TrEMBL record:
Species in which this protein is naturally found: Streptomyces malaysiensis
Domain spans labelled Peptidase C14 caspase: 11-198
GO BP of this protein: peptide transport; proteolysis
Pro residues bias (residue ranges): 249-266, 302-311
Database matches in CDD domains: PBP2_clavulanate_OppA2
Superkingdom of the source species: Bacteria
InterPro entries tied to this protein: Caspase-like_dom_sf (IPR029030), Pept_C14_caspase (IPR011600), SBP_5 (IPR039424), SBP_5_dom (IPR000914)
Protein name per UniProt: Uncharacterized protein
Alphabetized GO MF terms: cysteine-type endopeptidase activity; peptide transmembrane transporter activity
A Pfam family: SBP_bac_5
Coiled-coil segments: none
Sequence ranges assigned to domain Solute-binding protein family in this UniProt record: 452-845
Biased composition (Low complexity): 374-387
Chain residue ranges for the region called Disordered: 244-311, 362-390
Length: 936
C-alpha cells in the first residue's frame, strides 16, 4: 500500500549546480530546483512546508552541501529526500562517483562531492526512510577511461540493502540537458508527472508509478532511460498525490492502469531511439506531393536503444514501444515492493554504461529468440482478434459481418474541409469515402493489396485508348444520391470542375486540373458561360451512363488521381460553394446528420444508398460520430477507456498516453506500427557551395550515421533505415538496392569513404554548411544527430531554427536557400497516390523547380531524369513504369542530391470494439475506415 510521508516530520534538500568554472554549463538545473521545490511544497502534492525544503544552488564546497544535509537528516523523523542535479564525475582508477560543484575540474575528483560521503550523512540521520534522487551525467571523455568493471563499481556505491536503483546510459555530459528546454530530461519528466498526474493511476504517486511513468516518457522520446536494480523493496513510498486521481464513480471510466513498465522487445535490426513528441509523433510525416501543410510528428522508439551521440531534443508526439502480444511473465522482471527501515532510492539519470543481464533477457521473445520483423506473404491470412501490430500483418483483425452500433471517432482538430474537392488531409480523405464515392477507388484489402485500383461508381476500370490519352467509363446502374436521384456523368464532371474554382473554394490538390487542362484555359463552373455550366472540354458526357476524359498527354496514373476525393461527384443544384463543406450531398452509404463545427459531427445512414451498387463499402455501423476536443490528454483517456474507438487522423495519443499504453500489456495489444509510404530525407541543394560538387555531397551521404539519426527521429517504430529514395510501397522500389552500403553497414557511417570523397571534392579538412530546422518538432533531433556524425569527418554544421509555420515557405524558395547557405535541408514527404509520379516527380523533376513553393529542394536538374519521368508517366503498364522509376531512383542516387534517412512508420491506436481492422494501401499508415464495424 502506498504511503505519503508526513510533511511535518519530513525534510527535503535540493542541490543543483548549473554554473561551472571549468565544465559545461547546465542552465536548466537552476530551473529544476525552483520547479521541484514548488512541486513538493504544493498543498495538493506532498505539502512540505517551504522552510522544510532547503534549496542549495551552485554550491562551491562539499562542506556547504553536507552541513545542510546533516541538519535536515537530524530534523527529519519520517522521510528525508535529497536531490542532486548537475555533472557527475568518475574517478577513473577506483570508479568512485563524485557530484560536480561549481569549481569542479574534469579528472580531478577531489574537486567534487564524494557520493559515498553524502550517502553516509543521509543514512546517519534519524529519518526512517531516505530517498535519494540523482539527476547527473558523466563526461563522454571520462567514460573512455572506464571499462565495464569500473561502471559496476560506481553502481555498487549507490546500492545498499533496501535500495531501488534506476540508471540510464548517455554517451556525453550533455545528454540530459536538451537545448531549448527549461529542465533536464529526467527532471522534466518527473515534474510533468508530479504536476500533471497519471490518468487512471493510483491516488498516490508511489515510486513504482514514478519509475514506470518516467521510464515510459523518456523511452517514448528516445532519451536516456532510467534502468532499475532492486535489492530489496521501495516502491510503496509516495512522492506526491496524483493530480488526476478521481474517486471511483466520478467522471468517465479511467483507462486501465498498469504501473509496471514492459521491458522493450528486441528487434533484429539496428536499435536507435527517440520519438514523436506528442505523437511523435511518434513520427512526423511531412507534406504530401502537392506541398500541403506538414503532418504530425513521427513515432518514437521501441526499446532501450544505444544512446545517441547527440543531445536529445524536444520530440513532438512520441510513440513508445509496446510489447508484442504482451510480455511473457518469464521475460518481464518481476518487481516486488515494500518499505525498509533505511530506504535509499537512487534515480541516477546519469552516464554509467550498464551491462545488466535482465536487459538482455527482456530483449527476446517468448521462445528466447530475438524476434524479427514480419514479412507479408502477399495473401490475406485469417486474422487475429487482437494483439500488438496485428493490423499490419496482411490480415484482418477481428473480422465480422455484424451490422449495427455507433463507430466513434475522436479528433483534436476540425477537418480542413469536409468538401471532397477542398480537403487535403489524409484522415479526411479516408473518412470522406463514407459520403463521397469516385469512379474508381482502392481495394478494401490489407497490406499491399490495398493499393489495387478497383471500380466504384464505374462498372469497371477505364477503357484506355488513343495511346493512353483517353479514358472511358460506364457508370453502374442503381447509383443514387441521398435524395434517391441517380448519379449522372454530369455530376461527376461538375464535381471535378469545381477544382478550377480555387478563387472561391480554395484547397485540395490540383493534379487533375494539371492533367486535364495544363494551360488553365477553363475558368471553373462559377465563371462558366455555358448554359449547363459544364464547359470543360477535356471531359465529355455523351450519354446518361458514359463519361470520357481526354488528356493532352498520356498519363498512366490518371486513375490514381480519379481515386482521390477531388474526383467525387457533386450535384450542381446542391452546390453551395464555400458552404458546401458544412453539408456535402452524399453519394455514399452515410449522409451528414447534426454537425456543430469544432464540436461534433454525426453521419447517419443514407436510406437511398443501394448496397448492391457498392462493392467497396460494408457500411456496418448504424451511425458514425466524430467528437472534437483540443485536450490531448482527455482524448487519450477517452480512447483508453473505450469511450471512443479511434483517432480520426491517427496521431491522437500524447507522449504520456503512449508511455502508459506501452507500459500495459493489455493496452499495448491495441497499438499498431504500420508504414506510412512516407520518407524522411535531407536534400543537398546544388546552388549552395560546396554542395555543387558531387563528391562533397557523397561525403555527406557516407558520413551520416543513419542509425543514430533514426534514434533522433523516433527509433525503429519511426521507420526503417532508407538506402534510397523510393519507399517499399511505391512501384520501382528495390529492397536489395543499396548504393552507398547503408544497409550493409546497418546504418552506420563509412568514415573512410567520406574522407576519400572530401579529398576528391578538394575539401580534405571538411567544410562548413547550415541546416535549417523547424523550431518545433523532432527535426531538431535529426539535425543534432547529423551535426554530430558529420563533425567526425570535418563537416561542420550550423543549425538555423525557423518558425514552424514558415519552414516550407523558407526552404521552398531557392533564392533564400542559396542566400542563407542551407546546404542540408531536412524534409518529410508523403505521396498523394502510390506511384513514382505521385511520390518522386515533385522532388526530382528539374522542370518543377519553382521560385516559391518549390519541392525539388535539392534543385536536381537532370534532363535524363526528366525524360525518364515522361516515359514512366506515359506508360500504361505499371510494371514497365515501375522499371522506369527504378532507373530514376538509381540516377538520383548517383547524383547524391539527397540523403535518404527513413522509410517512415507511425504508431496508431485500435479500439477494442473495432471489427474488420487492417492497414495498408494508400491510407498512409491509417486503418481503412470504410471496412470498420463495431462490436457491442
Amino acid at each position: 500500500m502506498a504511503v505519503l510521508p508526513d510533511p511535518a516530520a519530513s525534510r527535503a534538500v535540493l542541490i543543483g549546480t548549473s554554473r561551472y568554472a571549468h565544465l559545461e554549463q547546465i542552465p536548466a538545473v537552476a530551473n529544476n530546483l525552483s520547479a521541484l521545490a514548488e512541486a513538493l511544497c504544493a498543498p495538493l502534492s506532498w505539502g512540505l512546508a517551504p522552510e522544510h525544503c532547503a534549496v542549495i544552488e551552485d554550491p562551491a564546497t562539499a562542506v556547504e552541501v553536507l552541513e545542510a544535509v546533516r541538519t535536515a537528516a537530524e530534523e527529519a523523523t519520517d522521510t528525508l529526500l535529497v536531490y542532486f542535479a548537475g555533472h557527475g564525475l568518475v574517478e577513473p582508477r577506483r570508479g568512485e562517483l563524485f557530484l560536480g560543484l561549481s569549481g569542479s575540474i574534469q579528472h580531478r575528483s577531489y574537486t567534487g562531492l564524494p557520493y559515498g560521503t553524502l550517502r553516509d550523512v543521509v543514512l546517519d540521520g534519524r529519518a526512517g526512510r531516505q530517498v535519494m534522487l540523482l539527476d547527473c551525467c558523466f563526461s563522454g571523455r571520462v567514460l573512455g577511461f572506464m571499462g565495464a568493471a569500473g561502471a559496476e563499481a560506481v553502481i555498487d556505491q549507490v546500492e545498499i540493502e533496501g535500495t531501488y536503483l534506476l540508471a540510464s546510459v548517455p554517451d556525453t555530459s550533455f545528454a540530459l540537458a536538451p537545448p531549448g528546454e527549461p529542465h533536464t530530461a529526467f527532471t522534466g519528466e518527473l515534474l510533468r508527472l508530479l504536476r500533471g498526474g497519471v490518468p487512471g493511476g493510483p491516488e498516490l504517486l508511489d515510486l513504482d508509478t514514478v519509475y514506470a511513468q518516467v521510464y515510459g516518457a523518456l523511452r517514448a522520446k528516445g532519451r536516456p532511460l532510467p534502468q532499475k536494480r532492486d535489492r530489496n523493496t521501495a516502491g510503496g513510498l509516495a512522492l506526491a498525490r496524483n493530480a488526476l486521481w478521481a474517486p471511483p464513480g466520478f467522471g468517465p471510466p479511467p483507462p486501465p492502469y498498469d504501473h509496471e513498465p514492459t521491458p522493450p522487445p528486441a528487434f533484429t535490426g539496428t536499435f536507435t531511439g527517440t520519438g514523436t513528441g506528442t505523437g511523435t509523433p511518434p513520427y512526423e510525416p511531412g507534406p504530401r506531393s502537392s506541398d500541403r501543410a506538414p503532418g504530425p510528428a513521427a513515432t518514437s522508439p521501441p526499446g532501450a536503444p544505444p544512446m545517441p551521440t547527440w543531445s536529445p531534443m524536444a520530440l513532438p508526439l512520441p510513440a513508445p514501444v509496446p510489447s508484442p502480444g504482451g510480455a511473457s511473465p518469464g521475460r518481464r522482471r518481476a518487481v516486488a515492493y515494500g518499505l525498509a527501515g533505511a530506504l535509499v532510492v537512487a534515480l541516477v539519470a546519469a552516464g554509467i554504461p550498464l551491462a545488466m543481464s535482465w536487459m538482455k533477457d527482456s530483449a527476446k521473445d517468448n521462445s528466447g529468440q530475438h524476434p524479427s520483423e514480419s514479412k507479408s506473404s502477399g495473401k490475406p491470412k485469417p486474422g487475429p482478434t487482437s494483439g500488438y501490430d496485428a493490423a499490419t500483418k496482411d490480415a484482418v483483425v477481428n473480422a465480422s459481418t455484424k451490422p449495427g452500433g455507433t463507430l466513434k471517432f475522436i479528433s483534436r482538430n476540425e477537418a480542413d474541409s469536409w468538401d471532397p474537392q477542398r480537403t487535403y488531409s489524409g484522415g479526411v480523405w479516408n473518412f470522406s469515402r463514407y459520403y463521397a464515392r469516385q469512379l474508381v477507388t482502392y481495394a478494401p484489402k490489407p497490406g499491399e493489396g490495398g493499393n489495387e485500383l478497383v471500380p466504384d461508381l464505374a462498372e469497371k476500370k477505364a477503357e484506355v485508348t488513343d495511346g493512353g490519352k483517353t479514358y472511358t467509363y460506364t457508370l453502374r446502374k442503381g447509383i443514387t444520391w441521398e435524395d434517391g436521384s441517380p448519379i449522372t456523368p454530369e455530376d461527376i464532371k461538375y464535381g471535378i470542375e469545381r477544382i478550377w474554382a480555387q478563387d472561391e473554394i480554395p484547397g485540395g490538390p490540383t493534379f487533375l486540373q494539371e492533367a486535364l487542362d495544363p494551360g488553365l484555359t477553363y475558368k471553373g463552373p462559377y465563371k462558366d458561360t455555358s448554359k449547363d455550366k459544364l464547359g470543360l472540354k477535356a471531359i465529355e458526357t455523351p450519354d446518361e451512363r458514359t463519361i470520357v476524359f481526354k488528356l493532352p498527354k498520356a498519363n498512366g496514373d490518371f486513375e490514381h488521381m480519379l481515386a482521390t476525393p477531388s474526383a467525387s461527384p457533386v450535384k450542381k443544384e446542391k452546390d453551395t460553394k464555400d458552404k458546401y463543406q458544412k453539408n456535402p450531398f452524399s453519394s455514399g452509404p452515410y449522409e451528414f446528420g447534426p454537425y456543430q463545427p469544432g464540436q461534433s459531427l454525426k453521419l447517419v445512414r443514407n436510406s437511398k444508398w443501394n448496397r448492391s451498387s457498392d462493392p467497396i463499402r460494408t457500411a456496418l455501423p448504424d451511425q458514425i460520430t466524430v467528437a472534437f476536443n483540443e485536450d490531448d490528454q482527455a482524448n487519450a483517456q477517452a480512447l483508453f477507456s473505450g469511450k471512443y474507438d479511434l483517432d480520426l487522423d491517427s496521431w491522437g495519443l500524447t507522449d504520456q498516453a503512449l508511455a502508459m499504453a506501452k507500459s500495459s500489456s493489455r493496452l499495448s495489444d491495441q497499438l499498431d506500427n504500420p508504414h506510412t509510404a512516407g520518407l524522411l530525407f535531407a536534400a543537398l541543394p546544388r546552388s549552395v557551395k560546396p554542395m555543387d560538387n558531387v563528391h562533397c555531397r557523397k561525403a555527406v551521404l557516407y558520413a551520416a550515421d543513419r542509425e543514430n539519426v533514426r534514434t533522433a527521429s523516433g527509433g525503429p517504430l519511426a521507420g526503417d533505415i532508407a538506402p534510397h529514395m523510393l519507399p517499399p510501397a511505391i512501384p520501382g522500389s528495390d529492397s536489395s538496392y543499396d548504393p552507398y552500403g547503408t544497409l550493409k553497414n546497418k546504418g552506420k557511417p563509412n568514415t573512410a569513404k567520406a574522407e576519400a570523397e572530401l579529398k576528391a571534392c578538394g575539401k580534405p579538412d571538411g567544410f562548413t554548411t547550415t541546416i535549417p530546422v523547424r523550431n518545433s518538432g523532432s527535426d531538431m533531433n535529426v539535425a543534432e544527430s547529423l551535426q554530430s556524425s558529420l563533425r567526425k569527418v570535418g563537416i561542420r554544421v550550423e543549425i538555423d531554427r525557423i518558425d514552424f509555420a514558415q519552414y516550407h515557405e523558407t526552404v521552398g524558395s531557392p533564392s533564400t536557400v542559396k542566400k542563407k547557405g542551407y546546404g542540408i535541408v531536412i524534409y518529410r514527404w508523403l505521396p498523394d497516390f502510390p506511384s513514382g509520379q505521385g511520390f518522386l516527380q515533385p522532388l526530382a523533376d528539374g522542370r518543377l523547380i519553382r521560385s516559391t513553393g518549390n519541392t525539388n529542394i535539392a534543385e536536381l536538374d537532370d534532363p535524363a531524369i526528366d525524360h525518364l519521368f515522361d516515359t514512366a508517366i506515359a506508360e500504361q503498364d505499371p510494371e514497365k513504369a515501375g522499371s522506369d522509376y527504378a532507373q530514376i531512383n538509381r540516377r538520383i542516387s548517383d547524383s547524391a542530391a539527397f540523403l535518404p534517412i527513413l522509410f517512415q512508420k507511425s504508431v496508431i491506436w485500435r479500439g477494442s470494439r473495432l471489427t474488420n481492422v487492417y492497414t495498408g494501401g494508400p491510407w498512409q499508415g491509417r486503418y481503412d475506415y470504410v471496412s470498420l464495424g463495431v462490436s457491442e
